[in-house]
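Design job #97: recover the sequence.
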């Protein structure tokens, strides 16, 4: 990548468009728009460029990951329910080989057993889970620190 300004793609998976209304006891009161503003401010502080996208469709998320090849330096992703089901999203991340951090608002490891397994974790640098919107903020910080240390 020739540009000095790091570019990070932020992807939000299914049902995250409902944040704020959706099971607020688990996912909090903040909306996706709130998370996007928080990330924009964090990105500005870190001196990186971000683009955030949300989709409820697996194929759309895969197209966005494929399209990130040679365009974005890093990927911050909350794959939501696809975390636990999607070999295809895992394969897309492995294919583009873009450094990826997986984030979750809730702690997936202390919830139902079906949420304990992540198909994404083995192709990610790491996972931050359970800190609400701070998972995103710290995920972005961790990703940028990783990209700058290469
Ligand atoms: C989630 C956790 C997933 O298990 C769930 O399906 C989601 C959100 C989280 O951010 O806590 O939709 O990824």
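Job complete. Output follows.
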């Amino acid at each position: 990548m020739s540009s000095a300004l790091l570019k990070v793609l932020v992807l939000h998976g299914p049902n995250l468009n409902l944040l704020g209304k959706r099971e607020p006891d688990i996912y909090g009161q903040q909306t996706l728009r709130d998370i996007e503003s928080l990330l924009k401010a964090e990105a500005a502080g870190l001196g990186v460029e971000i683009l955030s996208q949300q989709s409820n469709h697996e194929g759309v998320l895969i197209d966005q990951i494929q399209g990130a090849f040679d365009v974005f330096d890093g990927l911050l992703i909350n794959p939501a329910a696809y975390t636990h089901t999607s070999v295809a999203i895992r394969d897309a991340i492995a294919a583009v080989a873009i450094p990826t951090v997986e984030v979750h608002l809730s702690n997936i490891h202390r919830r139902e057993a079906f949420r304990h397994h992540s198909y994404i974790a083995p192709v990610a640098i790491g996972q931050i889970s359970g800190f609400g919107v701070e998972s995103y903020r710290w995920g972005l910080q961790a990703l940028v620190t990783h990209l700058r240390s290469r």
